[in-house]
Design goal:
Layout (H helix, E strand, L loop, with lengths): L1 H27 L4 E5 L2 E5 L11 H9 L8 E5 L5 H8 L3 E6 L2 H13 L5 E4 L13 E4 L23 H13 L4 E7 L4 H10 L2 E10 L4 E9 L3
Parallel strand pairs: 3-4, 3-6, 4-5, 6-7
Antiparallel strand pairs: 1-2, 7-9, 8-9
Helix pairs in contact: 2-3
Length: 229
């Protein structure tokens, strides 16, 4: 019964907010905004995804608290504002944040400065020109809505009509035969089984590691591994 009530609430909220969200968000995101995440001051520049809008950033941090990060070589793919990278650096990790959006990398560097930590940033698409043997831990908070992004900002939301983001990600991972721990967060709103199927096409498996749930959303963190590992 609770599950049915929850689904009705989520459906009503999604239909109601989707009508107004895009127009409001375009206006809102035209300015720099400041939020507090895990006692860190995080600025979000225009054109960069705001981590305050979704629960995934906080869920990832909650999961990462179960892992010792001190002196770990930490890579965040698609770092955006750098909120997770900055938090990891506060825990003593040696951090690199990557993004395809130069505004995001500038934003991440600004937030590192604001919070008195050092992070390395690199402009790249997924793991192109990244040697995963240099890292112990990789985290990914991917775009997962199946639509074609029209610009760099929309690439933070949309993974392509045929999940091209995931096909490219898993293709690159297959070629590297990585051994580091790699975690990716997904929401119940995305096509999880389709994404897992794409991973299988590249000899990868997504193993559920962490599950966070509330009345609004269920989120799942998967560990990505080679099938023959």
């Amino acid at each position: 019964m609770f599950g049915q009530i929850r689904n009705v609430i989520r459906l009503v909220l999604k239909k109601t907010t989707s009508i107004f969200f895009k127009k409001w968000y375009n206006k809102y995101s035209a300015k720099t905004h400041t939020s507090i995440i895990e006692n860190l001051t995080i600025e979000t520049f225009p054109g960069v995804f705001n981590p305050s809008f979704l629960l995934s950033t906080k869920t990832l941090i909650r999961f990462l608290k179960t892992i010792t990060l001190f002196n770990k070589r930490f890579l965040e793919l698609g770092c955006g504002t750098g909120a997770i990278s900055v938090w990891a650096a506060h825990q003593g990790a040696i951090v690199t944040g990557t993004d395809i959006n130069p505004k995001a990398l500038e934003n991440a560097r600004r937030n590192a400065e604001l919070n008195n930590v050092i992070i390395k940033t690199k402009a790249t698409s997924l793991i192109k020109n990244i040697d995963l043997t240099e890292f112990d831990l990789v985290v990914i908070n991917p775009p997962y809505y199946p639509n074609s992004p029209k610009n760099l900002e929309e690439q933070a939301w949309f993974c392509g009509e045929k999940f091209e983001y995931f096909s490219e990600l898993f293709s690159q991972l297959e070629r590297q035969k990585f051994r580091c721990d790699m975690y990716m967060i997904l929401s119940e709103d995305c096509a999880i089984e389709s994404i897992k199927s794409i991973a299988h096409n590249y000899s990868l498996v997504c193993n559920l590691t962490y599950h966070s749930k509330n009345i609004i959303e269920h989120e799942f963190i998967y560990k990505i591994e080679n099938e023959n590992a």
